[in-house]
Amino acid sequence: MRIGILTKVFSAELVDAAIAKHDRAERRRRLLPARLVVYFVLALCLFARESYEEVLRLLTSGIPGSQAHARVNRSSWCRARTRFGEDVLETVFRQVAGPLATRGTPGAWWRGLRLLALDGTQFDLPDSTSNGDTFDGPSATGGVPFGFPQVRAVVLAEVGTHGVLDARLGGYRDGERGLDGAKGRSASGLRAQVSRSSLGIGRGMVRMCRRPRRPRKPAGLLLPSLLPKCRRT
After folding, report:
1. In angstroms, what is the C-alpha Rg of the chain?
2. What pTM was estimated for this model as a whole?
3. How many CB atoms lie under 10 A from the CB of residue 224?
4. Which is more confidently placed, 125 or 192?
5. Are strands 113-124 and 109-110 parallel, antiparallel or unpaired?
6. Distance between CA atoms of 24 and 31, rounded to whole angstroms?
7. How many whole angstroms separate alpha carbon 168 and alpha carbon 146?
8. Which of 11-25, 81-95, 193-207 has the lowest mean pLDDT?
């Protein structure tokens, strides 16, 4: 995989616009320019089990001058990511996230409505003090932490393609109901399938769900009134 493949989805113009929006462009010529940092982080998502060095090799293989990047140590990449922040990446994501299914995509439609799913999950994070303080994690009796810090994600995805339309991230102690901002940018023509644990969240999502039909009254059967009758005085 080379950087040219990523640029087919995340164009250089789109990335540069997001960098400029949040004023993250480099003030002087750097070995790790802002645009390269964006593509590097995207590549880390694709190759989550690979080392920094291997991801960089896969990203820049065959590009003239890429040997200079191979000499950059891991700590420099970490500082570049910290300096860069998350705002640019969120903007890039929201520029490209959206429905992918066409009218012919199997399993993507129900009676003319686009099928979506809203659900939550958790991801392990590197076991560092900063991650533990920021996101927290599972703990034993008495509050003694064990395992890795975890981030909780609530994701809105398209059923037919598994494409992610929106997502919200929080800490381990943040419930899915608290991350109720995950919703599609356009509610027109959408139908959401909400997980059982999420039935109280996402007011915008609830409006996209089809209301349950009222039970039909069987012919010849009188149902008792649910309202108390008033006594005559």
Report:
1. 24
2. 0.68
3. 5
4. 125
5. antiparallel
6. 15
7. 25
8. 193-207
- Do 150 and 123 contact (CB within 8 A), yes or no? yes
- Structure tokens given for 106: 């199997």
Sign of CA dihedral 178, 173, 75, 39: negative
- For 199-228, what is the mean pLDDT? 41
User: Could you read off the pLDDT of 11-70 as tens digits, one per residue?
Assistant: 989 999 999 999 988 877 777 888 888 998 998 888 888 888 888 888 877 565 566 666
Q: Are 155 and 194 in contact (CB under 8 A)?
A: no
Cβ contacts of residue 41 below 8 Å, gap of 6+? 81, 84, 89
Q: What is the pLDDT of residue 232?
A: 47
Q: Are 40 and 55 in contact (CB under 8 A)?
A: yes
Cα diameter, the chain: 95
- Compute the distance between CA of residue 6 and CA of residue 40 in angstroms, rounded to an integer: 10
Q: Show me where the domains of the chain are located.
A: 3-96, 109-206
Contacts of 233 (CB under 8 A, 6+ apart): none
Q: Would you tell me how many other CB atoms lie within 10 Å of the CB of residue 198?
A: 21
